[in-house]
Write a structure and sequence with these properties.
With 294 residues, this protein is mainly beta. Helices cover 12% and strands 35% of the residues. It has five helices and 20 strands. The mean pLDDT is 95.
């Protein structure tokens, strides 16, 4: 996982640990105070997961200006824009899978293990997709971009044909996955099991189910199928605005219940939509599940 920065000058001195390869995500986040986490706003725009494809559109010193195709953004039809250190990129060809299958992480986080001796190599987050080399009842061997083979616990991944969704696109399963994030710290720009922001949670949840939605809340609110607030169903996304500008969203998980990542210092949790502060405050609602239009 790599933070995607707003500009090459966005990182602070304390962010150096997030500029290496691989990123020590827990070593980066653990010492941060709440105020320091809040200061990530407008510094980090999103994250890219291990093995995610990016398009390099420019460079500045040791930095690459990239677009992330899996994260739609109206600023560029090719993908979400941002900056990452060149050291965090590889230009190697994607490894092939002799099984023509992918392993997608469905736990909040899991460990890539050395396939020979089982020692921990790298912790990776939910939604990471890697090509499968071999499969047993307890483990999955996956191909890395550097040519090595690593091992994942079978219970922490979904193995599917290459290009197929990792999980079934049903409202029940979208709600089940969303609830796995309960208690996770809010992280501005986060899209993984290390921390999420409001729209990062809905984006990664839908990605796991094979549905691509815009990365940011304001753009999610402008897509999908409009839904009346009295016709909400589990899996719908509701949005909140200030002076007509959408600034927050949440996932409907039941009757008048929303699960959301609200703000720095507050973990992901469920709240009621019919009680303050959210009662009567929904500015828009959208449905992205196919075949469930109102």
């Amino acid at each position: 996982m790599a933070p995607v920065w707003h500009t090459p000058t966005s990182p602070r001195p304390m962010d150096r640990v997030a500029l290496g390869a691989p990123v020590d995500i827990r070593g980066w986040l653990a010492p941060m105070t709440t105020k320091q986490r809040e200061d990530l706003t407008d510094r980090v725009d999103t994250q890219a997961l291990l093995d995610d494809r990016v398009i390099v559109i420019g460079a500045q010193g040791d930095w690459a200006h990239v677009l992330i195709p899996d994260q739609p953004n109206p600023a560029d039809a090719r993908g979400y824009p941002g900056w990452v250190p060149l050291a965090q990129l590889t230009f190697a060809a994607l490894p092939t899978s002799p099984t023509n299958t992918d392993a997608t992480v469905t736990a909040l986080t899991t460990w890539l293990l050395d396939a020979a001796d089982g020692h921990r190599v790298m912790e990776i987050g939910m939604g990471t997709r890697l090509p499968v080399r071999a499969l047993t009842a307890d483990a999955v061997d996956v191909a890395m971009l550097d040519g090595t083979v690593r091992r994942l616990a079978r219970a922490d991944v979904s193995v599917t044909p290459r290009g197929a969704p990792a999980l079934p696109a049903t409202a029940d399963d979208i709600v089940r996955v969303a609830r796995l994030f309960t208690g996770l710290p809010y992280l501005w720009g986060g899209v993984s099991g290390f921390g999420v922001d409001c729209s990062g949670l809905t984006w990664i949840d839908y990605r796991l189910h094979g549905i691509t939605i815009p990365r940011d809340a304001s753009h999610q609110a402008a897509s999908g199928t409009p839904v009346a607030t009295d016709a909400l169903r589990p899996g719908d996304i509701v949005f909140f605005a200030s002076k007509g500008v959408v600034h927050h969203n949440g996932l409907v998980v039941g009757d008048n219940l929303m699960l959301h990542a609200s703000h720095t210092g507050t973990p992901v949790r469920e709240v009621r939509l019919d009680q303050p502060p959210y009662a009567g405050q929904i500015a828009a609602a959208r449905r992205y599940l196919p075949g469930t239009h109102p």
